[in-house]
Amino acid sequence: MSEQQHHARKLPTDIEQIPIVWRYELLKYVRSKRLVGSVVIAAVVIALIFVIPPATGSPYSGTDKAVNIWVVSAKSQNISIPGLQLSGVGFINRSVVVTNSLEVFQDGVPYANWTFSIVTIHGQSTNVVLFAHNTTGHTYTATYQWHNTSESFASGFVGFATLLIVICATFFGADAIVSEYQARTGYLIFPNPIRRTSLYLGKFGASMTAGILVITIFYAVTGILSFVFVSGLDKNFLLSFAFALEYLLAVMAMAYLISTLMKGTTGATVLTFFLFIMILPIVDSVGRFSASKPSWSVTFSAGVMSNILTSPYPTDGISEFSRAGITIHNYIPDPATAAIVILVYAVVAVAISMVLFRRKEMTG
Hints:
Elements: H1 2-8, H2 14-31, H3 34-55, E1 61-68, E2 70-73, E3 88-92, E4 96-97, E5 103-106, E6 109-111, E7 114-121, E8 124-131, E9 140-147, H4 150-158, H5 161-172, H6 178-182, H7 186-189, H8 196-230, H9 237-261, H10 265-290, H11 298-301, H12 304-307, E10 317-321, E11 326-330, H13 335-359
Antiparallel strand pairs: 1-9, 2-3, 3-8, 4-9, 5-6, 5-9, 7-8, 10-11
Helix pairs in contact: 2-8, 3-5, 3-8, 4-8, 5-8, 5-9, 5-10, 8-9, 9-10, 9-13
């Protein structure tokens, strides 16, 4: 009977082994508190980014009461509305004004002969109150509710996403391979009937799952806060999230490549972190002075995550300091090019690290 049971057992195939490794690697992240630690870091940063502006006198929304409106001649600003005879233009210096809450007063008395509009002046959208009658000799005030734009709100949070992605790659990928050799656990794992490819894909899948979970929580909380406090979500917010996941894939792949090349976990962890936080950004900055756009750089391309939230999308520019004889080029990554560059880094790094892992042997 026991012999029949022995023959009935079937080892999992190479494909079936991948989710098994995947599951145990995730369990290891949970037990080692790395996953919890990453989520805590994301939560703390979100809290700080959210709390500091209001605490320092820059709230996300509010109500302005009896605020003076600066009124100038419509002709001086070259503002004209078809079918409307304009005399004066009053400016409201807030990001978004809740139109149905706007009340205008002339010399302290409620005034109704006005029109609210958003016009473009010197390339910037501006909230204005348009007056058809002569405004000379009168003082105008306004009471209204306002809030920041969803674009500016989200940008304040998404700027941290690149660092959070590097932290995830450092926690979940930098020592994923090298630790098996340094801790000699490979002596227990490698002799088992499991291909290195299955082991690699299972580990990489677990690392990506943990990283995606952290990044998703970060973006989800940011999106909820945006809906609650600025009454909306930027139209390109989900696109920024997609770029963040792609960048996570590339950084994680390079972390695995470093892990296959290094001999110690400390070296792999330090190199992974500083490669994306310091080394590559320094190389990118050289192009600003040498008039060479680093479109090939994965860290330069990562800037698209925050730039995509800006409308209209920013373009390259030049800052000249004639007295110092310095010209600084302000380069902006193109979204399509950035997507391709990041994907190439991910695919190449995964391919190389997988080949190296399959050939790497236990020594000592």
